[in-house]
Amino acid sequence: MHLSRHALHNYWRDPMDGNRADYYIEGIENSKFLLENMKGYFDLHANILEIGCNVGRNLNHLFQAGYQNVSGIEISNYATELLKKTYPDLAQKATIYNSPVEEIITTLPENGYDLVYTMAVLEHIHTESEWIFHEISRITKTYLITIEDEVATTLRHFPRNYKEVFEPLGFVQVYEEAERVKKIVGGTFVFRMFKKI
Ligand SMILES: C[S@@+](CC[C@H](N)C(=O)[O-])C[C@H]1O[C@@H](n2cnc3c(N)ncnc32)[C@H](O)[C@@H]1O
């Protein structure tokens, strides 16, 4: 049993529980894990997009590490406003799209990003929105990283194996790991890195 797409969007626009944007300022270990796994793949001029960036903790961590061309998509207006207050330097430089990914992704340029990444976001993409996976492939120039819970099923979780999702869409998986990500991000999460072919 899952929420309808409409109800799911409404939930993420303004969650009043443990998913409130204020709580996503915490979790720097997740951001460090992402950065560590990017080392050696990207120069500091890389164009980077996070889908579902929330308050921008991950983007700010990359920004502070020297990545200047960072963008994010986020459905919650509250989270994007909090991003501006929490990380004003990031907010000045980054492009933040306050929109459901479904409404913005078709407007983004083909092969526009050296890296597109998601952390705990695709797991909340409704089955009716799975067409966005093709769009993710279209806008990715080189690498895609997914850090997603591939097992949990709740009203808001849609479990998928992202290797099976993205390899048929023009990617080859170059790296997968579950052990460290389990300890840092969560028990049934998998880190996957894909290269566009
Ligand atoms: C579990 S949180 C993860 C946030 C962030 N990636 C992190 O790791 O801290 C999921 C995020 O995805 C956003 N989100 C969920 N569905 C979305 C959609 N359809 N379009 C854009 N953002 C969405 C939520 O608002 C929330 O910020």
Strand content: 15-25%
Q: How much helix is in the residues?
A: 25-40%
The CATH class is identified as: Alpha Beta
Strand order of the largest sheet: 3-2-1-4-5-7-6
Describe the structure.
- With 197 residues, the protein is an alpha/beta fold.
- The chain has a single domain, classed as Rossmann fold (3-Layer(aba) Sandwich).
- The protein has nine helices and seven strands.
- It has helices at residues 5-13, 28-38, 57-64, 77-86, 88-93, 101-104, 132-139, 162-166, 179-184; strands spanning 47-51, 69-74, 95-98, 113-119, 140-149, 171-177, 189-196.
- The protein has a seven-stranded mixed beta sheet.
- Helix 3 links the parallel strand 1 and strand 2 (69-74).
- The termini are far apart.
- The mean pLDDT is 97.
- Residues 9, 12, 24, 27, 30, 52-54, 57-58, 73-76, 79, 100-102, 119-121, 124 line the site of S-adenosylmethionine.
